[in-house]
Specification:
2 domains; 269 residues; 9% strand
Length: 269
């Protein structure tokens, strides 16, 4: 609720909202039609951290150490506004299972404490090995569940690093205060850290402790690339359309303000 004396620079329910909605609906229809073309390959900037995942799997094989995959203690959310990061982590899980099957590396998956996500995570890993032609590489004992709570999860993950070793630690998903401890432990044990989160408040931990990092929304773009899912690829491009709309609005607003126009009133129409 707006307090007395406050000025709302951008109000909801304005013509700008309608214009943005029209643009996004048009972009959705356009890219949805594009996905029907099997030869359509949208351009998405290559992210160096993707190459590091394959490098880390190879490192694990050479050192005879397992690959570890973690979504975060709270990484199994299927019912919140962070569900997009859960889906992103699942796309990376499918990707890493294929690489482990190709290289012959053992994969340990540290599952989040949301029990409702366990069947999806196990199914993704099982299907990934089966699709790669190595269903026998799926080991139920390597799908680790530690119970509820971030500290419980962190203790279980770090103990696994210490006892079984780390070649590659791929951490992608919803992370809170659990990530600095787990990432540091993987580093201490000589593992390569590759990871990222869409939660900007924890991006610092990945930037400091990862050998290769996906910064912010790069995890979504990278997940779309590794999944090769037309819906995910088109979703990334639709979001870009929305961002360009905001950039244009900022540039035009700045220019109008520079010549003395009341931009706040214009934006509130």
């Amino acid at each position: 609720m707006q307090q007395s004396g406050e000025i709302a620079v951008i109000k909801t329910g304005t013509y700008l909202d309608i214009l943005l909605m029209i643009i996004l609906v048009a972009a959705t229809y356009y890219y949805y039609e594009k996905t029907k073309d099997p030869n359509w390959k949208p351009f998405i900037r290559h992210i160096p951290a993707l190459d590091a995942i394959s490098e880390g799997v190879g490192k694990s094989v050479e050192e005879d150490k397992p690959v570890h995959f973690a979504m975060g203690a709270s990484g199994g959310q299927l019912y919140s506004n962070l569900v997009s990061m859960t889906l992103t982590a699942l796309a990376f899980l499918r990707h890493i299972t294929g690489l482990c099957a190709e290289y012959g590396a053992r994969l340990i998956v540290h599952m989040p404490y949301q029990t409702e996500s366990i069947p999806i995570i196990e199914g993704t890993a099982r299907e990934g090995f089966a699709f790669a032609g190595k269903p026998e590489m799926y080991r139920r004992d390597d799908m680790r569940y530690y119970g509820r709570g971030a500290l419980t999860w962190t203790q279980g993950v770090t103990a696994s690093y210490a006892e079984e070793g780390v070649g590659l630690n791929l951490s992608i998903g919803i992370f809170y205060s659990d990530c600095p401890i787990s990432l540091e432990m993987a580093h201490i044990m000589g593992g390569m850290n590759v990871g990222g989160t869409g939660r900007w408040i924890m991006a610092y931990a990945f930037a400091m402790m990862c050998d290769y990092v996906f910064l912010g929304e790069e995890i979504y773009a990278a997940a779309a690339q590794v999944s090769e899912d037309p819906a995910m690829l088109s979703g990334i491009l639709i979001e870009e359309v929305g961002k360009f709309f905001v950039y244009i609005l900022l540039i035009v607003g700045t220019l109008l303000a520079a010549v003395g126009l009341d931009v706040a009133s214009l934006l509130s129409l």
